[in-house]
Design goal:
Helix content: over 70%
Number of helices: 9
Structural class: mainly alpha
Strand content: under 5%
Shape: globular
Length: 276
């Protein structure tokens, strides 16, 4: 393997493994209550919306034009809306009418808790997938930056690592709440970070010979559409339910502001001729 690729892989691992640092903050503490979970879901929703609208869709529109960028974006929305339609809600078995009322109440409460945990687990997986998709082009950026020089690649890797820590928290917390397993929370959060070294490998050996820049930008715009749909369909309602609408909205905008600031510092870490 080329030495430059090895350097880029090492730098991307620094950024990718920082999601594990975020997961450690979660698993070293007690499992959160529902309100805290709702606030973090709102924060994570803000991260996802900012990535979707202000990063992926924005870059697609600037690169391939307003019409094509929007077509790719809404193609992603429609595609995943169809996928979600065919993913049934996990069934909650109704209590038998013949059982005693107190037993019915107890089982109903248990069913509700199980349903909450399934919803939260799905939300955590959604966050992990979305962050993985966002980390993938970040790995590409680290590779291209390291080709410009070690200083550029290192600066970029450190900046990515800093803004990946809260992303690790956003993935690990709902998984930990839903599964009560520290290992599962740590594992899924860490796996979401490994998309960065994967991005390095893809750009080093497959790009650009097998994929035109226009199609790549379009696909990333479609990814933005997928992330926007998942955020609004799954994460935001959960945040409203658990934290309350007003508090959840504040958390959403806090997450958007944080991600926007992170993207800005990532952007200024790149040479002028490059862009995230």
């Amino acid at each position: 393997m080329d030495s430059q690729v090895l350097v880029a892989l090492g730098l991307s691992l620094v950024g990718g493994l920082s999601t594990s640092v975020g997961a450690l903050f979660v698993i070293l503490n007690q499992a959160p209550n529902l309100k805290m979970l709702g606030l973090l879901q709102g924060f994570a929703a803000g991260l996802m919306l900012s990535i979707s609208f202000l990063d992926l869709a924005h870059n697609a529109i600037n690169s391939i034009g307003f019409l094509k960028g929007n077509l790719w974006f809404f193609a992603g929305v429609i595609f995943f809306a169809i996928v979600v339609k065919f993913i049934p809600e996990p069934p909650i078995a109704p209590s038998s009418e013949s059982k005693k009322k107190k037993h019915t109440g107890d089982e109903g409460g248990k069913d509700m808790i199980k349903k909450q945990r399934r919803q939260v687990l799905f939300s955590g997986i959604v966050t992990a997938v979305g962050i993985s998709l966002h980390n993938f082009p970040e790995g590409m950026a680290v590779f291209l930056g390291s080709m410009k020089g070690l200083r550029v690649g290192l600066n970029l890797a450190v900046a990515i690592a800093l803004h990946n820590i809260p992303e690790g928290v956003a993935v690990a917390l709902p998984v930990y709440f839903a599964t009560q397993s520290k290992w599962q929370a740590f594992k899924i959060a860490s796996l979401s970070g490994f998309a960065e070294p994967l991005g390095v490998i893809i750009v080093a050996y497959l790009f650009p010979s097998n994929l035109s820049p226009e199609i790549l930008e379009g696909l990333l715009g479609a990814v933005g559409g997928v992330m926007a749909f998942l955020t609004l369909h799954e994460m935001l309602p959960l945040a409203f339910d658990y934290a309350g609408q007003k508090q959840a909205v504040k958390a959403v905008f806090l997450g958007m502001a944080f991600m926007s600031a992170s993207l800005y510092f990532l952007e200024i870490s790149l040479p002028k001729e490059m862009s995230l």
